[in-house]
């Protein structure tokens, strides 16, 4: 193969061109994905360790794109964000999560991820109230997950947004906890009900003593502040044992189940069907 400079340059530019074209194509398809009903919510169970039982599900967006199979959010949400489609998609996800949530037993909550753009949209709390009313889903069973980074963006505005939402009776979880800056001070400044300890910490819990100490401290502090803890990305029994020992409230991860369409869990949450 030719290895001169101009050759490798044209190779790279062609690759970049191809990527741009496929991105543009994806954007065009995303614009029609809602009306074509190509989005779907997968559900991942969350297990309460004290019970132990499934206490909720996190709703995770999927795009069933023709000839590309089922795509996960990192493959299309950034494009949707740039194309200004994120709020429409987020509205759909919220409505769908409430609709499906209403079909679950009353002790089961549903967690929905929010993009910052969605959270800061004027009147967002009203949209949430409408989605709840339209589906008859009790606010106490809806949890909204926001990433820690959101809290760095605005301050008074963020505080007002979160307070409005909590006034509705929904709860707020801080997602990916520990990955942002000054994580702990957020617990003091913002009204949150739960923190979700990021998978990057959980992965190291039985490998690095320092990481184990950090998780134990976070769980202890959260408990003192009356904030619940959920550990994300739990994949092994050893991780589970450590988290249980530290007093973590809930776990979520492949050890329990991958995210799947809700129909896959009917048996689990409703028990075997009576014959
Ligand atoms: P997240 O909220 O942190 O969700 C957890 C991600 O980790 C999910 O990826 C889930 O499938 C994956 N996961 C769960 N357990 C394990 C495990 O044990 N091991 C490993 N390796 N991974 C695990 P997914 O579904 O690809 O979603 C990626 C991100 O996309 C989510 O991260 C969330 O930030 C965002 N997202 C998902 N659904 C929505 C949505 O409806 N709206 C918005 N705005 N964002 C969403
Ligand atoms: Ca999440
Ligand atoms: Ca997370
Ligand atoms: Ca994440």
From TrEMBL:
Residues 23-273 form the EAL domain. This is EAL domain-containing protein. The lineage of its organism: Bacteria, Pseudomonadati, Pseudomonadota, Alphaproteobacteria, Hyphomicrobiales.
